[in-house]
Specification:
The complex is a heterodimer of chains A (634) and B (385). Chain A is α+β, with helices and mostly antiparallel strands and 634 residues long. In chain A, the strands form three sheets. Chain A has a six-stranded antiparallel beta sheet. A six-stranded antiparallel beta sheet of chain A has the order 4-5-6-7-11-12, covered by helices on one side. In chain A, helix 8 links the parallel strand 14 and strand 15. In chain A, helix 7 runs parallel beside helix 8, helix 12 packs across helix 15 and helix 12 runs antiparallel to helix 18. Chain A is globular. With 385 residues, chain B is an alpha/beta fold. Chain B contains 14 helices and 13 strands. In chain B, helix 7 links the parallel strand 8 and strand 9. In chain B, helix 10 crosses helix 13. Chain B starts with a helix and ends in a 9-residue tail after the last helix. Classes of the chains: A alpha+beta (634), B alpha/beta (385). Chains A and B meet through strand 12 and helix 17 of A and helix 7, helix 8 and helix 12 of B.
């Protein structure tokens, strides 16, 4: 887990070394152990290292291949690199060191672009071919590792974070209205967009070639078209559980390679418990596990996590916080997310990463299980709402007006979804943070851009046919929410404390297996993650596995009416910031009023707006970052 | 053509058969309509006298095709009661050797009538997608069918999976044939002229309605954005209510200036497109057969299709075209890159594809007529009940 940055110009116009050093410095949290640069007449490469495998200097980057032709900067881990080594013959007959970077470099030397098909892991890397004068970049299948780039006037720049790419990008940074609109609808910016027109993200499972001919991007893997295997419905459920169990053990085992201490996040839920159980089954005698426990009992999963840790024989560490303590992480949050990002669950993720980093450098997480194995009830809701939308229009109208009178939040949600089009539109509605509050961007942006529903539609057009609504929802979540939001959260929150997070559930063999599994084995009779829980019951008592999920939601709604109110008000009324964004200012102000007065809970969309304002106020990407975070009201 | 006539003459030696043919539509655009026109032409070649009742056609569209001399077509302009009454009356009156049902949705009518009076052999044409689901509730109607002309092996398989009593003996695999009307367009001077045709382009010909996204056009657009040669353009012929969506997808992918939506074009211009494209690409998930592949092959286009449903009966991978998994943009990109960069491969695939729709090829009209003759048993004493 590291940070990479680089620049290419076929005419040799490369960034000033001092500016380049500034860009590289912005990745310091991602790689505190080592730093290196390399350049020739066409390319400048930089790397910050978090040493995890092969801690010796032979793992130093940028790394030059044995024949001197290729140079690599690499962020991530290749879990099967030892298997790949067995298929390669290193020039000179022996390997220089033990790092996966060297393996990757030699794999590219041997197989070219096709090497991507053999890689199991999380990665974003760039390889410079000195002979062909060609830069090759790639990102892992699920998008666990980020890769931003810009291509302006023949100058190509890339980096692990926008903060590193920004200072190297020529010209001014203009806000991209399309990205802005989608961000305010979803709370994150999906690839290939970034907040700025001049900057893009390489999509997950894509590679890119840059040379004097220009820039070419292509996809090398795609889960969307994997058909659901309905014949599995006739298979014995225990056999399927056996298969899943084996796969989980194999993927977890492959993620145990490390030359530094390794542990796991453990909440009281199914996903992380499954990972820790698989660690035990893979031979880890006493896995180190970490949990954040809250003083407020209604949120606290601490005791449940402790119970699971005891049952699994883990060496468990808990940090007890008050929910209000999370607020102290806001400056770090604003600092490390150098792209607007509105998922408040980043707070507890940062807290647990900070805790884990005291003992380990690598932590396994359960991320991805909800999307792959049906962890959310709203997958079934799409189906129910689609059926309601089959009612004749007068009946829908009547139902809508009745539901709007019901004070319950869920009733209002259903009322909002009535009358929407197909399942993709309904899903977009359920997943949006704006819901029925209306758009916050101004009329010009609305006219010139597409809403997130259109992006969902485009993505879903590539799905295999005959999916159920629940299966469609899971695939949309995997392609959008997981890749662009959750994995960004895990990457940035863990990197904020120089911790490497690994997600075994996102092993591509496991992903492909889960794509083939019908929804019947994922959500059944109101039970989520049906098959995964069945497997976990082999390691934990059923009452622990089926314990009702307590769920922790950061109390943003209350914070915005309490400790963050003044901060929020100042931001919203800051004319300098507002003037830089094409927002409907009156609507933003009235929404804040509506929320702070307690009339409606509009915190998801307000939080997204505030994070955007905060970002624009703080991150002028062409400038150095200010040293201190904004002051918050007590 | 001479061979076809000779072939048909040998069958005509038998007494002409009378057929009642009930269809959903015959004249307008669309795969089923094209199939029906070819079918009626073949019946005529076999010396049959056909009475056709067409539910979905109107008088306005009749000018688009001239029916063969031995065929009379009555159109009903979607008037279901009138269509049902007339068909029912004719079925009860009888006097036909064979009753052909052109669409599963019309089967109930024939099944009901034959319960009262069964006086002819009943043949159902199964085109594809319309019989892939929902057959269970129509099982009673299928009992009235003597023979199912099934357009592909996949379609037979899915029908049998739904109604196990449909044993192999009740099916005849009856692939489509290239319509004879295309042959008249082969002379170069008769090909249409399309001003502004890009020099190097790939082609799709398809209906583009919201419900047709399974045709894989977005997959082609995604692949286009990734091609090694970014000068390659993409021409899409066809219309539908989803064109704006496709345009927005092209816009978002940054290839809008390389994609040309030319709408519905006359056959002569379509022939020009087929003849000039680098590859005909339609990676569809649900082609019952894919007659459009035959058209492309006839005009010498190299075909790329999805390894799905009926298309695998038409396109043989690495022989008469290339097959990719449906929705696999990476594989599609690789295929297009290959044929674009390799003229020898392109020519080899195109020639092999072309061979299947000319002379003694499996998908020629001559083979089709002979197959129909054998199915109707015309060469051995006429149809039987």
């Amino acid at each position: 887990m590291c940070g990479i940055v680089g620049a290419f110009h076929s005419g040799g116009r490369l960034p000033d070394p001092v500016v380049f050093a500034t860009a590289l410095k912005r990745l310091a949290r991602r790689g505190p152990d080592d730093s290196g640069t390399w350049h020739d007449s066409y390319v400048r490469l930089g790397h910050r290292r978090l040493a995890v495998v092969d801690l010796s200097p032979t793992g130093h980057q940028p790394m030059v291949s044995s024949d001197g032709r290729y140079v690599i900067v690499f962020n991530g881990e290749i879990y099967n690199h030892l298997e790949i080594r067995e298929q390669l013959t290193p020039p000179g007959g022996q390997w220089n060191g033990r790092s996966d970077t060297e393996t990757l470099l030699e794999a590219y030397r041997a197989w070219g672009i096709q090497c991507l098909q053999r890689l199991q892991g999380m990665f974003a890397f760039a390889i410079w071919d000195k002979v062909e004068r060609r830069l090759f970049l790639a990102r892992d299948r699920l998008g666990a590792k980020p890769l931003y780039y810009s291509w302006v006037d023949g100058s190509f720049v890339f980096g692990s974070r926008p903060g590193a790419v920004g200072p190297l990008t020529a010209g001014a940074h203009e806000i991209d209205p399309q990205a802005l609109r989608i961000y305010l609808e979803l709370g994150y910016i999906p690839a290939p967009l970034s907040l700025y027109r001049q900057m893009r993200k390489l999509c997950a499972a894509h590679y890119m070639v840059v040379d004097e001919r220009g820039l070419r991007i292509a996809r090398y893997w795609d889960f969307r078209h994997i058909p659901v295997d309905r014949t599995l419905l006739k298979r014995d459920e225990n056999e399927l559980a056996d298969e899943l169990d084996e796969l989980l053990k194999r993927t977890v085992k492959s993620r145990l390679i490390s030359d530094v201490p390794l542990g796991a996040f453990l909440s009281g839920g199914v996903d992380s418990a499954m990972v820790v159980a698989a660690m035990r089954a893979s031979g880890v005698a006493r896995p180190k596990t970490f949990t954040i426990s809250f003083g407020e009992r209604e949120y606290d999963e601490g005791p449940a996590a402790r119970h699971i840790a005891d049952l699994l024989g883990a060496e468990h560490r808990t940090e007890k916080l008050a929910v209000a303590d999370l607020l102290a992480l806001l400056p770090t949050y604003v600092d490390v997310f150098d792209e607007p990002f509105a998922d408040s669950s980043a707070f507890p993720t940062m807290a647990v990463a900070r805790l884990a980093r005291r003992d380990v450098t690598v932590a396994l997480t359960g991320d991805g299980a909800d999307e792959l194995f049906g962890g959310y009830h709203y997958y079934s809701h799409v189906d129910q709402l689609a059926r309601l939308n089959g009612l004749p229009e007068p009946a829908r109208r009547l139902l809508r007006s009745v539901l709007r009178q019901v004070p319950a939040h869920k009733a209002k949600l259903v009322a909002g979804a009535l009358g929407l089009g197909g399942p993709v539109e309904i899903f977009n509605y359920l997943r949006s943070c704006g819901k029925d509050f209306g758009p916050l961007v101004d009329a010009g942006v609305l006219q010139s851009t597409d809403g997130s529903a259109a992006w969902f539609e485009q993505f879903a057009a590539g799905f295999t046919v005959d999916l159920t609504h629940a299966e469609l929802g899971m695939r949309l979540d995997q392609g959008f929410m997981l890749t662009n939001s959750y994995l960004q959260k895990v990457d940035v929150a863990s990197m904020a404390f120089s911790l490497e997070a690994r997600c075994p559930m996102l092993d591509c063999r496991l992903v492909e297996w889960s794509m083939r599994l019908p929804a019947h084995f994922k959500i059944r009779d109101g039970q989520t993650k049906y098959l995964l829980k069945k497997v976990l019951c082999r390691y934990l008592p059923p009452e622990v596995v089926h314990r009702p999920k307590r769920g922790f939601g950061v109390p943003i709604a209350q914070w915005l009416r309490g400790p963050l109110r003044e901060w929020a008000e100042t931001l919203i009324h800051d004319s300098n910031v507002m003037a830089r964004l094409p927002l409907d200012r009156a609507r933003v102000e009235s929404l804040f009023q509506l929320h702070s007065s307690g009339q409606r809970d509009a915190h998801p969309v307000l939080w997204a707006t505030l994070m955007l304002l905060c970002f624009v106020a703080r991150h002028d990407l062409s400038q150095q970052l200010p040293e201190t975070a904004p002051k918050l009201a007590a | 053509m001479t061979d076809q006539v000779a072939n048909a003459e040998s069958i005509r030696a038998q007494p002409p058969a009378r057929a009642l043919i009930v269809v959903s539509a015959t004249y307008a655009d669309g795969g089923i309509q094209r199939f029906n026109r070819t079918f009626l032409t073949a019946c005529d070649q076999l010396g049959m006298t056909s009475e056709v009742l067409s539910l979905g056609d109107s008088f306005e569209v009749r000018s688009s095709w001239s029916e063969p001399p031995s065929t009379s077509v009555r159109v009903f302009n979607h008037n279901k009661p009138r269509f049902a009454l007339e068909a029912f009356a004719k079925l009860l009156r009888g006097g036909y050797d064979v009753i052909v049902v052109g669409h599963i949705n019309l089967m109930w009518l024939v099944a009901a009538a034959t319960r009262l009076r069964r006086n002819a052999r009943v043949i159902l044409i199964a085109h594809g997608i319309e019989v892939w689901t929902g057959l269970g509730r129509r099982a009673w109607a299928l009992r009235a069918v003597d023979t199912i002309l099934c357009v592909s092996r996949y379609t037979r398989q899915t029908m049998q999976a739904q109604v196990p009593e449909l044993v192999d003996e009740r099916f005849t695999i009856f692939p489509n044939a290239l319509s004879e009307s295309w042959r008249s367009l082969t002379a170069r001077q008769q090909l249409g002229c399309l001003p502004g045709l890009p020099p190097r382009f790939i082609l799709s010909v398809t209906r583009m309605d919201r419900g047709d996204r399974y045709k894989g056009i977005t997959t082609v657009l995604e692949a286009l954005a990734m091609l090694e040669d970014d000068s390659i353009q993409y021409v899409i012929a066809g219309r539908g209510d989803d064109v704006d969506f496709m345009k927005s997808v092209a816009q978002r992918l940054g290839v809008a200036d390389r994609v040309h939506f030319v709408g519905s074009v006359p056959d002569s211009e379509l022939a020009t497109l087929y003849r000039n494209c680098l590859a005909f690409v339609l990676p569809s998930a649900k082609e019952g057969f894919g007659i459009v592949f035959l058209e492309a092959m006839f005009f010498g286009a190299c075909v790329i299709a999805a390894r799905e449903k009926g298309a695998v009966d038409v396109v043989q991978h690495e022989s008469t075209g290339l097959l990719v998994q449906y929705g696999d943009t990476a594989a599609l990109k690789t295929c297009i890159d290959r044929v674009v960069a390799d003229p020898i491969l392109r020519r080899r695939l195109a020639q092999a594809g072309h061979a299947t729709v000319v002379d003694d090829g499996a998908f020629t009209f001559r083979s089709y007529v002979a197959r129909l003759g054998r199915t109707l048993d015309l060469s051995t004493g006429g149809p039987h009940v």
